[in-house]
Amino acid sequence: MYLKITDQGDESVGIFSESWDVPCPFVMEDVDSEDLKIFKASAISLYSQYASGRVVAQYDFEILAAEAQYNEAFPSYEEGLPFCEQYPGNTPI
Questions:
Q1: Residue 44: which of 4, 2, 1 has the closest Cα?
Q2: What's the distance, CA 82 to chain centroid?
Q3: What proportion of the chain, given as a percentage, has pLDDT over 70?
């Protein structure tokens, strides 16, 4: 299990975002949700001291859940079907 920490930077002035995968010193099944929140808040606080922009963090299981939700809402096209059958309403010109 890891915590992905992202410094969002400020690309308008040339400070690009940067991310770190921080291994967690525990297993998700061994801690309650309140401890997960505390660990995340502490990590954000620590990294914010050295960041150039807004710092956000997500656990790996949160990232996987968000990806699954996105894939369910926007399924990928089916291979082998013509474009107009993959996306009804979009007919070739």
A1: 4
A2: 32
A3: 81
pLDDT at 83: 53
Q: How far is residue 16 from each of residues 9, 12, 44, 54, measured CA to CA in Å?
A: 5, 9, 18, 11
Say how far apart CA 60 and CA 65 lie, in whole Å: 9
Buried residues in 74-83 as b, exposed as e (16+ CB within 10 A): eeeeeeeeee
Cα dihedral 68, 73, 78, 79, rounded to 10, equals: -50
Domain spans of the chain, in order of start: 2-86
Which segments of the chain does DSSP mark as H helices, in order? Answer: 33-48, 60-73, 83-86
**3-state class (DSSP) for residue 5:** strand
17-55: pLDDT as tens digits: 999 999 999 988 899 999 999 999 999 999 999 998 899
